[in-house]
């Protein structure tokens, strides 16, 4: 039970930790672990609720996609 709570808390805090640093590309498309990155994003959206918190998460994901595109371009 306690481990589940910690896991949910970690999933919820990832976007806020990421927001403090400049949008880094993280795992790039084509990487064998890219599916894991996208799965975690799906879990974050599922747990985010509605309204402004969900919009902030979408904004963070968009910034990450942009950073990925720039990294792939280089």
Short descriptors:
mainly alpha; 74 residues; flat
Distance between the termini: 45 Å
Radius of gyration: 13 Å
Q: What does the average pLDDT come to?
A: 79
Taken as a percent bin, the fraction of beta residues is under 5%
Helix/strand/pairing category? mainly alpha
Q: DSSP helix count?
A: 3
* DSSP E strands, number: 0
Characterize the largest beta sheet: strand count, sense, and whether it forms a barrel: none
Task: Characterise the protein shown here.
The structure is a single chain. This protein has 74 residues and is mainly alpha-helical. The protein has three helices and no strands. Helix 1 crosses helix 2. The radius of gyration is 13 Å and the shape is flat. It starts with a helix and ends with a helix. The model has no long low-confidence stretch (mean pLDDT 79).
Protein topology:
Layout: H1 2-20, H2 34-47, H3 52-73
Helix pairs in contact: 1-2
In short:
The chain is an all-alpha fold and 74 residues long. 74% of the residues lie in helices and 0% in strands.
């Amino acid at each position: 039970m306690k481990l589940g709570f910690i896991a949910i808390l970690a999933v919820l805090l990832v976007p806020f930790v990421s927001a403090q640093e400049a949008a880094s590309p993280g795992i790039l498309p084509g990487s064998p672990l890219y599916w894991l990155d996208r799965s975690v994003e799906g879990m974050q959206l599922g747990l985010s609720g509605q309204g402004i918190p969900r919009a902030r998460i979408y904004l963070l994901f968009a910034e990450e996609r942009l950073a990925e595109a720039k990294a792939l371009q280089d």
